[in-house]
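Handout, section B. The chain below has 428 residues.
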Amino acid sequence: MHRTEKQFIIKNLALFKEQLFVWGNQHQTVAWLDSNESISSETEALLAINSISDLETSYHNAFHQLENYIDSIQDYAFGFLGYDLKNDVEHLTSKNTDTTGFPDLYFFQPKKIIEVQKEQVVFKYPLALEVEIEQDWQEILATKNQKTTKNHLTIKHRIDKSTYITQVKKALQEIHLGNVYELNFCQEFYAENAFINAANTYLELNKISETPFATYLRKGDLHLLSASPERFLQKKENQLLSEPIKGTAKRDLENLEQDFLQKSALQKSTKEIAENIMIVDLVRNDLSHIAERGSVKVIELCKIYSFKQVHQMISSIQCRLKQEIHPVKAIKACYPMGSMTGAPKIAAMQLIESLENTKRSIYSGSVGYFTPNKDFDFNVVIRSIVYNATKKYVSFSVGSAITAKAEPEKEYDECLLKARAMRSVLTN
């Protein structure tokens, strides 16, 4: 489908982004992707609203349906992949309780796309809606800042600390038996009979996190508020890039000397380095099935990146996609992401299903978009709040990588560290 484009100059990037976000959130179908001025992104933010067409499905034959959908629309598509699409990739099942009500896969072809760049904004509308660009531009500029509201929810643990430690010990037994050598074990925190202003809460979460793959997704009464620091997979022409995260340390911005020491300790941690390299090897293996021979390269290994809440150890793996491989098949070959499963991947996912007690749903899935030429960019859904307004249910999950050297108490503390930002905006 052909879209017309029109550019406007913006003078105050931060102000305009908030006005655009608030204006966009009045719609029932919204995808907001924010790079928070990341130096690695040419696009500062993307807003997609309302749908010309959409695809919603369970995991059954989901990737084939998505491939057909992308081919048929020949346009932009925004949406998400749920974790349980693992069952479409391998012969697996999901029998745990679904608490959030999200479908396994949802993508929509937007009526309106607005791309924020560093100094300008680009409207990408269908020809039939070209006349609305100027009106929308004026409405956005007139939009008032979102009024801050505080949440005061009571957050419950899906499993208590002793149960968590018991489950980690079970994982360690499997590791010592050689059935897996790394496992991402997650736990859910939740609130029932809860009401939040989802847009306000996202802005607060983003303000204290400022991560490069932040996302706000709305599908009617279903909301995802994500402060994700992690890229799952990006395609630019024939180049694929994956940037898995393994390794986390707390920040101490009130004591910069201590903050530096914590960053240095992460950089030198043999346990964290081992975790990261295990997943790098897994990603290299996933990419090798779809890459041109000899093109899989590790371009950064165990590099430390610092965000407002945490230091993270990130690696970058790149390859050239085989010409005959459809972009959706490239995603399927790498799905779910190794950083949220473990290694070997199939055995890790089977063990995850037996140890965890709720479906991950959209958590540890992926949000992103396809362009008309079938390039794409997808994050990893971590550091995220899920809100089902109909059920009045708020949820967030966190996890850590369990390896042979894992200490259950320390893994529990790492989960609490990762939960801090979500908890703070929900409980004030």
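Note. The radius of gyration is 21 Å. Compare this with the example in section A.
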